Amino acid sequence: MNPVFLHTNSIMSFVMVLVTTGMLIYAKNVPEKTKLRKWVMFYYAFQVAWFSGDMLRGSLHPYLTGSIFYQLQVSFWFAPALSGTLIILTQICYLFIKDTFPKERKMILKVSILYFSGFVGFNIYNEFYNQSDENAMQIAGFLSGFIWNSWQVVVCLRKAGILRKSNSKVAMGHKYLATVIGVGYVLPSITTIIFGVYSPMGFWFYFVLIWFGNIAEITIYIIYSILPANFKVKVVGFTFLTVVSVLLIVTLVFFPPLVPSDIPQRLLQQEGLRKLFLIFILSTIVVVVGLSKILQFSLILPLKRLLIGVEQVNQGNFSSPVPIGMPDEIGHLTRNFNKMTKSLKRANEQLSNHAENLEFQVAERTSEILIQRDNLSKALQDLKSTQAQLIQSEKMASLGELTAGIAHEIQNPLNFVNNFSEVSAELVEEIQDIRR
What is the C-alpha to C-alpha distance for residues 140 and 117, in angstroms, rounded to an integer? Predict the structure, then answer.
């Protein structure tokens, strides 16, 4: 008997393996080496292990339930993978954007390791000593998910309340993450505990909300630069998620989940599930490989050439036109860029010529100003010399006037003395004549 017996659960788990594997590869290649990036990388590694274990277990024929392979798979694959996923997501919530509670985070890490050690131990006991009770295994898993996912919501909301005053954007990011975990992880745990994972209601809620939670969580990591993504990754990633989301809805509509022990009904689904399995593989190859190559040659390379041209223009090199390539929007943009480069080149040449002419005019004008300055300096010297001569002439004229005045004042007494002397001489003569 063929041990591979596909189930809707195995198809859905396979899709989650594809998504988480892609995120693991991308997280590993992110250039920023931060503590949170390492936790995110380990988170997706454990998710790959968790969903691949679910895929393998869901693809086994029911007669293998309780076999040694099944027991080992649940005990040492599924349980540790789920435990690691929840432990690391709790640490990511503490470290998201800002490590607000470092001491509490370390304490909770120890508590979570202790708790999930008990969870793994319970699964080992359930598989080897409790006849592989699947209901007990599922209840333990979903109950643990409910407890720890609820605590993650509490952590995010507490951080949002503390960071609200200092940075509203960061606080809003924590609220978004709390909403995603609450709706995408807590609510599925509640519905599956109430309705059961293989009931239509439980299965729909579980995978639709888990799918939403993972997609929304990836989006938050990209928006808040936990895992910064370039244009190519965003286009390929979101295209892949869109295609796979449509295929998942088709799977759930046309192949609703059945109870694993319902062999006759599951046999009717096998051919369709195998075809869907191949469709998912081909879709992944087409989108991830084909679309990636198309984007590489039609978008990424032309944009890189255009970016190199921008950098050359920024460095002052206007002589290297960018190859236009295909006649699309980027080709039109490249053509306009080359025209702009030519215009900048002409403007730069005109500016250089104007600068040279301006330098010549400045030198000529400077020479004229220097000649005028020399002429003014000479005129100033002549003026000072003339002024000195005028001052000297004025001094001599004033001295002449003073001398003339003094001479005049001296002349009058002398005339009087002379006249008196003459009269006195005449009187003396007369007196002498009388005496005779």
Answer: 13
Which are the contacts of 47, defined by CB distance < 8 A and separation ≥ 6?
A: 16, 20, 24, 81, 85
**Residue 141: both structure tokens together:** 């898993």
Burial class (CB in 10 A: 0-12, 13-18, 19+), 64: middle
| Contact criterion met (CB below 8 Å) for 191 and 181 | no
Distance of CA 29 to the CA centre of its chain: 17
Q: Which two three-digit tokens encode residue 124?
A: 């080992």
**Nearby residues of 208 by Cβ (< 8 Å), 6 or more positions away:** 252
DSSP assignment of 5-63, as one string? Answer: ---HHHHHHHHHHHHHHHHHHHHHH-S---HHHHHHHHHHHHHHHHHHHHHHHHTB-GG
What backbone phi and psi angles, to 5 degrees, belong to 4? -85, 120
Contact 67, 128 (CB under 8 A): no
Indicate the burial class of 204 (C-beta count within 10 angstroms; 0-12, 13-18, 19 or more): middle
Q: Are 180 and 187 in contact, with CB atoms under 8 Å apart?
A: no
Residue type, 29: N
Give the C-alpha separation, 100 to 154, whole Å: 13
Q: What is the CA radius of gyration of the chain?
A: 51
pLDDT of residue 154: 97
Helix crossing, 35-58 with 8-29: angle to 10°?
Answer: 160
Is the pLDDT at 309 greater than 80, yes or no? no
CA separation, residue 421 to residues 323, 409, 416 (Å): 129, 19, 8
**CA distance between the termini of the chain:** 202
Give the model confidence (pLDDT) of 417-434 as tens digits: 667 677 777 777 777 777
DSSP string, 212-265: HHHHHHHHHHHHTTSS---HHHHHHHHHHHHHHHHHHHHHHHHS----TT-HHH
Partners of 60 in the beta sheet?
4
Closest by Cα among 109, 184, 183, 117 to 144: 117
- Long-range CB contacts (within 8 A, 24+) of 131-136: 131/66, 132/65, 132/66, 132/70, 132/71, 132/74, 134/65, 134/260
Q: Crossing angle, helix 8-29 and helix 200-223, to 10 degrees?
A: 10
CA distances from 312 to 229, 320, 321, 346 (A): 26, 8, 10, 16
Chain segment 210-258, per-residue pLDDT in tens: 888 888 888 888 888 676 767 667 777 778 778 888 888 888 888 888 7
